Please model this.
Amino acid sequence: MKRTNPYAVFLISLLAFVLIGCLILYLLGPAERETFSEKTSPVIGTEVTMNLTSSAFAQGQPIPAKFSCKGADVSPALAWDEPPAGTKSLALIMDDPDAPMGMWVHWVLFNIPTSAHGWPENTPTDAILPNGAVQGITSARSHGYHGPCPPSGTHRYFFKLYALDTLLSLPSSASKADLLAAMEGHILAQAELMGTFSK
Model:
């Protein structure tokens, strides 16, 4: 009488188990996972919008050379509405989606105090500012504002303001990605201002 090879039985059983598991996963379908993105950022409760403006340029209009690498390369003055109740801090991101190598981050600023209803022109490049706000790392691997400097053509520059229900425990070495991850689930309201620039 021929004896059954126990190893063969084990391998056949294991293969059958794997195939059944794959079939179950296929029938159930992949689990949907929500990822954080700037376009679909999670806003707590009722969505609230804020207005973000600048005395230097209007929405969709050219940013003056003074605020670019062609000029003094200083940050423009910004102003915004009263943040919603429960706001503990504000955060600001400036980026350029038209950069040749992909999104280029020009400014990362967080833990802006709620007492601030705007931001003055010509922000220092210090990592920690006198009012407690923190400037993270840009795509230029530096702190502070890094103005428009497109290699060619006209680029769009988005200033994005977020009202948060918390102070963020992030170091000054935080990048835009770090800030976005830390803000997830804490955004009460947001605003956006876009300006253009041609070198």
